[in-house]
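Interim report, section 4.2 (structural modelling).
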Amino acid sequence: MKTITFNQIKTSSIALEFDEVIPDNIYTWDNSDFDAYQVPIGNSRFPITDFFDIVIEGEAESPAEVKMVLNGDYGRVKYIGCKMSAGEIIVNGNADLHAGAEMSGGKVTVHGNVEAHAGREMSGGKLEIMGNTKEFCGASYIGEWRGMTGGEIIVHGNAGKQCGECLTGGSIHVLGDCDILAGIHMTKGVIEIDGNVNRWPGGQMKNGNIIIHGKVGRLLEGFVEQGIVTDPEVQGKVYPGKYIEYKGDIALNGKGALYIDAEKNRDRLSTWIEEDDEYNAIRVYREQ
Amino acid sequence: MEYILKNGIVYDPQNEINGETMDIFIKDDQIAESVSDDAKVIDVSNKIVMPAGVDVHAHVAGPKLVLGRLYRPEDSRMGVSQKTKIERAEAGFSIPCCPTTGYRYSRMGYGTVCEAAMPPLEAKHTHEEIATIPNIDINPVTLFGNNWFCMEYAREGRIEEMAAYIAAMLRVSKGYGVKIVNPCGSEAWGWGQNVHGYDDKAPYFDVTSRQLVVALAKANEMLGLPHSIHIHPNDLGHPGNYPTTVETLKSIKEIKKSTKKAAKIRDQTVHNTHLQFHAYDGTSWKDASSGADKVADFINHNDYVTGDVGQVTFDETTTMTADAPMEYDLFQISGLKWANKDIECETAAGIIPCIYSPKTPVGTLQWAIGLELFLLVDNPWQICMSTDHPNAGPFIRYPRIISWLMSAPRRMEMIENGEVHKWSHKRTGLAGLDREYDFYEIATITRAAPAKIHGFPDRGALTPGYKADIAVYDVNPNDFDPSRNPEMVERIFTSAAYTIKDGQILVKDGDLVATKPSHVIWTDVKGWEREEAQVLNEMMPFFTQYYSVKWENYQVHDHFLSNPIKVEVPAK
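Predicted structure of the assembly:
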């Protein structure tokens, strides 16, 4: 087992890029390699030792035996763990864009907040974020219609907009709240949200599953109520409790399943909607 | 600067030089009879020397490309490399950025590329992009197949006015020739429709695509343009479309080729592009099969027709064409993202990403039909290499296509070991074809024939006085069997030992050593000024009322052109 500890000396207002500093590349490195390495910053490169005091302990035969500990503020360090396939990275602080992007194995843990595009296009491994994250967590690359295909993302805080966009496999679990359009364009996989969702979960989803334990603000019109289900089983896992099940998004002939907690969303049941002012207002408007 | 390419094994089909060992002399930007003693000697013994490649049909510059790049950022991140002292950064796979396009063509030994669809309204933009593509000369052909004025002239049978209009628009857009895409169909798309078959009418204009194509062909020959009409017929990609293709070609049969000097170089009166997409039999995708034998048979019996193939290469690519209704049909099948671009009174284009997989029946059928066309058309001067870049595959796959053409065992291996879907031999006759191209025929379909078809008087051959556009490939054809070494064939044609453009060495051993600005080639028709003025006068009220730009801004002025080469077509 080899532990490489990065103790931050100074920060940079222009982001550092860490996609080369992953266990797959550095498991054989010793101090002289780090002294010689220049880290990309903007359109240039600078010695990594200007920014970090690097301590190496132990030996590693393979990337899987590497543990990287990143101490300090990594709020301006992008691509932490990007494209890694094995090993472990622990960030004791915040992380910038694309943390854990395109990773295919190993584990990344961030004990802080993470910027957007965390876990983008992951195909394996585990990304755990103890704080909040921003937009496009577990999403696809811009323009790409094939997003995260495997692995697991756990967000202990809140997630931003379009979490799990174009999800084509794997699972995302948000323990906090989630912003609009979670699981937009998703075709496979599971998104579980413990907190509340303000609007539009599963927009244009074709397949896959979304489970929401909190309150849902507004649903898209493309979701059709299927009734109340108890203890639904989704991809081999049972989610205890009562849920309202929806199918959608029918705008795209989608067959995705959306489960929302029945107790917290009673007002959403069709029997309740009859008495709901907002929906009545929309119906009256449409009938005009 | 003077050079001698010493002891190369030369393939120059236009001069009927087939693998002779000889020296090529270069003086400044031209090939010369002899050079002085100061000339620098480049030893190319045991290497193949050919004229630089000429791409007969590709989409490399213009509004569609920009829309495609905006629309597919995920394509741009493929093939990224950092800038060097010579090159700017590269990016993109199926729709590479402009400099990358030039670099990649150069590395394959190409020197000239035809940009196959330029709407006049977006001509300025096309020329701006051409100016940023280095190393290759580009001749953009202007779209006329859904032009409102052309449709009106065709309906009324006013061929002379149409010729004058074409002459004027070539000058306005600085275009090289007449391109027709899904005649009447892209206009019908403006009404949410398409035309089906050759005798279907565009809504409102009351003109069939037959009338329009025949009129454009007559006008083209009346003007005596260097290139014939360049047509993408109706019903692209629909099973059972080969009769439309044959009908289209047949209708041009009676039209006499112009006797003018500029038109003398070419033999054809119609060039049918990406024939592969137009050679399907059957009634639906369920019973689709190859119609390549019928199309090839027609071409073999009619020497006024040339074509290029549009070979599918099994890649994830981007389809983009001025055939907007077809793109919408494709979108309905694939469900991937779709973009549409309407060009007012001129045309309409569509874009969707497309994945040609060897595991799918349709992609494999298209692949096999393309190869069948290459192998069934007897005369290599009538069929050219193309992937309709980027529609059937990116141009960087030409070397792989060459390896398929030169190796029947490789094709059979793909069919037999299940590398491709079984439709490749169940629905086509590919498995029964054992023809193999030799280097002379490869030189014909990639250089000599495209140059002749486009009517270039200065390239596509190693004749003294021609431009010194030369490619050298590192293989000795006398002790090399391409049939048994397809990977090697692909490798040697992917990275040229030397690419020389205008007498300047741009590529050495597959690496770029220099870049140079590109030229744009356009046709200037002389002697029609009075008729042109009349026609423009007549169209101006309509133009002023309905076009979204002013006439003054519509025209491509000279300062927009990057190093123009003007091809003058003299008076009637």
